[in-house]
């Protein structure tokens, strides 16, 4: 049962996050060291985790069709998440400027740092590959529609498209090539890739723990009143809507489960960076990422439980 199988990985992730918190509490964590951790995750660990799924998953037309389906659903769900985030923000009288930030926080989740490793822990290498396909669709929406949404005077440029071609997305293209051609590297390369892939979960959760500590050290009000709506929408309302949507489709059970888990992910870890750059509001990004991640410890198992009861 997926609900029971998610409890173990979630518990381990919590423990690793606490370790990250303690490391940050007892050591000085600079912005450079934090960026190094992000770089290792995005450029090495996550790409290797995706490739590991291609190496260890049985090849077939069914897998290719599943990857395409989950990619399409990811784009649809990501767009719907941004739209619902903006609508709810306006209903609750947020200003147009803040409504765009709320839509960003509530619409897009941490499908890479947490989602891919979590699906790998629950479903194995195939789960990582399917989760990566979802993350790819979200990444395309992130660096096109979402970035445009954050800016009042947005102008299209090739620079936005270049950001889409990051290591995780390149790795899923390579993974598709491996699946289609059935060409795999020597065993020693696969073993090396597997070792690097195993870094994804611990590094990602260490980063979350460090982020929590850094936020708690910041001076100033810790109120999350302006985040109540987006966090409820991100972790509860939108995942339940997604359960209802995919529940009436003919998608396979594993695709439905991966979609639900990815939709239930907390606000993405790079939200503070993007909100600081495009909306000049890093604070709301940091608080949304940290508070939603803490809440997700309870809400993700709850959403998975609801999903298992629905289908």
TrEMBL record:
It comes from the Bacteria. Its main location: membrane. One of its GO terms (cellular component) is plasma membrane. It is a multi-pass membrane protein. It is found in: Cell membrane. Gene3D superfamilies: 1.20.1530.20. The chain crosses the membrane at residues 6-24, 36-55, 67-89, 101-123, 129-151, 163-183, 195-215, 227-248, 254-276, 288-308. InterPro entries: Mem_transp_PIN-like, Na+/solute_symporter_sf. Pfam families: Mem_trans. Keywords: Cell membrane, Membrane, Transmembrane, Transmembrane helix, Transport. One of its GO terms (biological process) is transmembrane transport. Belongs to the auxin efflux carrier (TC 2.A.69) family. This is AEC family transporter. It comes from Bacillus taeanensis.
